[in-house]
Design goal:
Layout (H helix, E strand, L loop, with lengths): L1 H5 L2 E2 L2 E2 H35 L4 H26 L6 H38 L3 H29 L4 H18 L1 H16 L7 E4 L2 E8 L3 E6 L4 E5 H5 L3 E3 L6 E9 L5 H16 L4 E11 L4 E9 L4 H21 L21
Antiparallel strand pairs: 1-2, 3-4, 3-7, 4-5, 5-6, 8-10, 9-10
Length: 354
């Protein structure tokens, strides 16, 4: 009786065929769950103890991107025990291709994201670079999804060559119409990878100067010293010669001071020592030289060079102020007078014939 029931045919398959299908499917699901619970969980525990992050990444990728494919694989293999109509078999094949393409695209995007993060983390930890990765990743996703969908349609039998040819002609037209936008986009990639500046840097471009506030896909915004916001296209920045004062490790300072011609030789010889002592007594400054440089029109001129061991402009001004205070105090003690524009007229009295 049971044997006869097993041989009953329903939708071109016997009852025994359905039992084999269900048994194979459930055994496959059980094997996957056993693997996930015992082996994968142990691998996770081992990865958490290791110093590297690569094993954590690979285990996460396997769990989220590959395990769903295994479930479909179990179903697909189990279904081979059944006699399936060509149309239904084709649907299964299409679902398999779609699922494989979908998971492959997600895998590629995850690998690119991880590679970018690891590349920048090896160089230095930078919040701006992390923000840049989040900005550039959507563009990469669009490109990867476009390529993946193209391959998917080709595998499904669509004539992609005709579509690509049409897109190529349309793409040329779009590129010509949007060449400025595309130029700014490529310039953004240049700024992102070459890093000539970053958010917070003080830069000078031509006659404009200010601190970088935001680096966007098309424009970069700079806050000027006057308070207004300057907006530059990325192409303008990459095509310009700019000076980045934030990258300056130390600032070279050159200044002049002048004393009157009435200053004695003894006082002139004391001035370089006074300046040197004034600079060396200030922290974060490095004395280079101080010389009696020239005879001016109304003064005796000294040239001074020193270094501020910081790129901070406010720090430089504080140091210069302290040096000026110190020099002024020492000059007053020694009765040395600073020069200012004056003109002395010498009149010669002559006797005339009456």
């Amino acid at each position: 009786m049971l044997k006869d029931i097993m041989q009953v045919t329903f939708l071109q398959n016997r009852i025994i065929d359905y039992i084999v299908f269900l048994s194979t499917f459930f055994v496959g699901i059980i094997i996957i769950h056993i693997f996930k619970r015992f082996i994968l969980n142990r691998l996770k525990a081992w990865a958490e103890k290791s110093a590297t992050t690569l094993d954590d990444f690979l285990i996460t990728i396997f769990e989220k991107k590959l395990l769903p494919l295994f479930y479909f694989g179990v179903f697909y293999v189990s279904s081979k025990s059944l006699t399936i109509s060509p149309s239904l078999s084709k649907i299964f094949d299409i679902l398999g291709v779609v699922l494989l393409t979908f998971l492959s695209i997600r895998l590629v995007i995850a690998l690119i994201n991880y590679s970018l993060e690891r590349y920048w983390s090896k160089k230095e930890i930078d919040v701006d670079k992390q923000r840049g990765i989040k900005t550039i990743l959507p563009i990469i996703k669009v490109i990867v999804w476009g390529i993946g969908i193209t391959f998917l349609l080709d595998n499904l039998g669509f004539k992609i060559s005709t579509v690509i040819a049409g897109l190529g002609i349309g793409g040329i037209a779009v590129a010509l119409a949007a060449q400025t936008i595309l130029g700014d986009l490529f310039s953004y990639f240049v700024i992102f990878f070459d890093r000539p500046f970053k958010v917070g840097d003080f830069i000078i471009i031509g006659d404009y100067l200010g601190a970088v506030e935001h680096i966007g896909i098309k424009t970069t915004r700079i806050r000027s010293l006057g308070g207004e916001q300057l907006v530059f296209s990325n192409t303008d920045l990459t095509n310009s010669r700019l000076r980045n004062y934030k990258r300056m490790e130390k600032r070279r300072v050159v200044f002049k001071l002048s004393v009157t011609y009435q200053t004695t030789l003894k006082q002139l010889k004391e001035i370089p020592g006074i300046i040197r002592k004034a600079i060396e007594n200030v922290n974060a400054s490095l004395f280079d030289r101080a010389h009696f440089a020239s005879y001016g029109d109304f003064s005796l001129d000294f040239e001074v060079v020193y270094y501020v061991m910081s790129s901070d402009y406010n720090k430089y001004m504080d140091i210069q102020q302290e040096i000026n205070f110190s020099i002024k105090g020492e000059f007053e003690k020694r009765d040395i007078e600073f020069a200012y524009p004056t003109q002395t007229l010498f009149l010669e009295k002559t006797s005339g014939n009456n």
